[in-house]
Amino acid sequence: MTPTATREIDDDTPTPGTTTTVTVELSGVAEPVTLVESFSPPIADATVLTDVPFAAVQDDGGALALTAPAGESLSYEVTVPPDGKAHAVEGTLDIAGGPETTVDGDGTIDPEGLAPVVGDTPPTNVIEDGAGLYEDIDGDGEFTIFDVQALFRNLDSPAVQNFPEAFNFNEDDDPESVGIHDVQGLFERLVDG
């Protein structure tokens, strides 16, 4: 029987900042194996869920390596960075005394939505005016002065800076970053109510 390895990503469209589990199912593998999964762009926070004798994550988060005795599956969990970028996952399985096998199956973790700016709840769009802006920065369901303060305090966070279109309260034509003028624009939206 030819060895095969198939990847399944539990949630391939997770919210940025949350975790998702990746399982690689093995078939026809009777020897110890080394699984190497590469992430592009890197995912720095990965946790091995399968009990294995060796596991390592590259310092830059570009790859994860697991060495294990023969088995039916290997699992790991990744925390999706708050950058909103899709992360390609490619893998190989090196079987002791056998050929290297490419891991088939799911190959992309593509975050959907925004990462939480404060707390555990992502921002929401409160004013339904078609602008697609997220006024409820703290995610509590209300647009208040506390949201303006939260944006100001977290202005430099990746959860804000990686999503300039969502916080473009200054109404720039092609926003590349979020700045103090966007905080002022959010305040004006609150005052104009």
Task: Write a structural description.
The chain is an alpha+beta fold. The protein has 3 helices and 11 strands, in the order E-E-E-E-E-E-E-E-E-E-E-H-H-H. The chain has helices at 145-153, 158-161, 180-192, and strands spanning 4-9, 19-27, 33-40, 46-48, 54-57, 63-68, 73-79, 87-95, 100-102, 104-105, 108-109. Helix 1 (145-153) packs antiparallel against helix 3. The protein has 2 domains: 4-109, Sandwich (Immunoglobulin-like), CATH 2.60.40; 114-193, no CATH class. Strand 5 (54-57) and strand 6 (63-68) form a beta hairpin. Strands 3, 5, 6, 8, 9 and 11 form a 6-stranded antiparallel β-sheet that branches.
Question: Which characteristics define this entry?
Answer:
Immunoglobulin-like, 2 domains, elongated, 193 residues, five-stranded mixed β-sheet, alpha+beta, 13% helix, six-stranded antiparallel β-sheet
CATH class placement of the largest domain: Mainly Beta
Distance between the termini: 67 Å
Proper CATH architecture of the largest domain = Sandwich
What would you call the shape? elongated
Q: How many helices in DSSP terms?
A: 3
Q: Helical proportion?
A: 10-25%
Provide a quick synopsis of the model.
This protein is an alpha+beta fold and 193 residues long. It has helices at 145-153, 158-161, 180-192, and strands at 4-9, 19-27, 33-40, 46-48, 54-57, 63-68, 73-79, 87-95, 100-102, 104-105, 108-109.
Question: Strands, helices and their partners?
Answer:
Blueprint: E1 4-9, E2 19-27, E3 33-40, E4 46-48, E5 54-57, E6 63-68, E7 73-79, E8 87-95, E9 100-102, E10 104-105, E11 108-109, H1 145-153, H2 158-161, H3 180-192
Parallel strand pairs: 1-10
Antiparallel strand pairs: 1-2, 2-7, 3-6, 3-8, 4-7, 5-6, 8-9, 8-11
Helix pairs in contact: 1-3
